[in-house]
Amino acid sequence: MSTVFALFWLARSGKMISKHLRKRESFQLFPRPPFHFDATFHKPSHFPAPITAWEPGFYWMTLHLGPSICGLRIENAGSKRKPTLKVSVFSDHRILHSEVVALKTELTWRFDLDADLNDFEKAALIDARFRPVFRRWRGTRDSWHGTLYELLVISVLLQNATVRRSVQMLQALLDAFGKRVQFDSKDLCVMWEPAHMRGVSEGDLRALRLGYRARFLNRLSLDFANGTVDEIELRTMDLDRARKELTKLYGVGPETARILLYPACHQHERLRHVAPWQQKIYSRIFYEKPLVPVPKILSDLNKRYGTFAGLATHYVWEDLFWRHQHKSIPWLAKEIRL
DNA sequence: CATCAGGGCCCTG
DNA sequence: CAGGGCCCTGAT
User: Fold this and answer.
1) Which domain holds residue A89?
2) What's the order of all strands across the beta sheet hosting A18-20?
3) Is the CB of A215 under 7 A from strand C?
4) Measured from the CB, is A206 under 7 Å from any atom of strand C?
5) Is A140 a domain residue?
6) In a domain? residue A254
7) How many Å from the CA of A164 to C1' of B3?
8) Residue A242 vs residues A102, A232, A247, A273, A332: alpha-carbon distances, Å
9) For the stretch A15-50, what's the b/e string if a residue is b when 16 or more beta carbons lie within 10 angstroms of its beta carbon?
């Protein structure tokens, strides 16, 4: 392999610049029990992005902390009675006390550590059929490690594409606009911030083979950079209001709004929308039939689980993917179509 | 080789 | 409010 080609390849795969971060700080967080560490941090149904890493009892992620970037290692350091997270902060500079406070608040929000699951437990445990599932994953939160913008990027890449293509598009974007960091023996990417996309045209994005999503990403990034979207304010809205606000965004329809909503608001709610591929999977797991009409699925699940329907289906859904990850489920493999 | 659909959404009539 | 068109890819 020629050097020039090697360099080109390294640059293409984003391996060129990798910043090393040192451990600077650590603190603890105390999730409200019950708490399930692994299922809260690791979502088997999500496609793997080189931004986070997981092993049983450990989770690594990168994020922007003010103007700088940092890496986190989160360890399961508690007991059933007193769930505890030990968080280590890796950075290229000293971490201020105010930054620790901000991190605590943000992590508590993103992973919904204060969630009160009592009413959900009551509803879930009288469900004879899925009780084992709810029991197995007891204490799991529906969560997303990143910002609203970051999830929006992912969901736009998912639109009308197979997972493989979504992965390719994300990799191309990370190579072009992300950064690489090494910390705690992990080598991960940090996503770009919306403002970094100011000088990037729709054509530039098309060159990365985003197709028509290039326009969405371009406009969405500008909206976020210009403060058109206020993530913090969205968190305080009720779900209907938040859904309405999100759907106003260019490129955000019912399905993308659904993906964003829980991380945006962390309120438990009924199901409102089932996408075609979810319809197939729900039909299989809840009815053992190939295709049940969406209105029936919605009314049945909402009747059964009430305002916790969103969370209940999350448990059943991730349980399915978890089992699939350990022992391939052929019909599911076919639906996912990597 | 051509055709098609895929974890949607926008725009038009 | 239904339906065509959109970028690209891998499957058929």
Assistant:
1) 11-107
2) A18-20, A179-183, A186-190
3) yes
4) yes
5) no
6) no
7) 21
8) 23, 11, 8, 15, 32
9) eeeeeebeebbeeebebbebbbbbbbbbbbbeeebb
Residue type, A22: R
Q: List average pLDDT for each run of 10 residues in chain A, which is 338 residues long.
A: 36 66 97 98 95 98 95 97 98 96 98 96 91 97 97 98 96 97 97 97 97 98 96 95 96 96 92 91 93 93 93 97 94 84
What is residue A269's predicted lDDT score, i.e. its pLDDT? 87
For residues A102 and A65, what is the distance between their CA atoms, to the nearest angstrom? 9
Q: How far is the CA of A162 from the C1' of C9 (A)?
A: 9
What's the rounded Cα separation, in Å, for the pair A249 and A286? 33
* Structural domain contains residue A98: yes
Q: Which of A89, A107, A125 is the last residue of a domain?
A: A107
Number of domains in chain A: 2
Q: Answer with the one of A62, A82, A107 that is the final residue of a domain.
A: A107
- Nucleic strand B under 7 Å from the C-beta of A335: yes
DSSP element (H, E) containing A33 = none
Dihedral of CA A317/A320/A324/A326: which sign?
Answer: positive
Q: Is residue A240 part of a domain?
A: no
Residue A141 in contact with residue A113, Cβ under 8 Å? Answer: yes
Q: How far is the CA of A161 from the C1' of B6 (A)?
A: 5
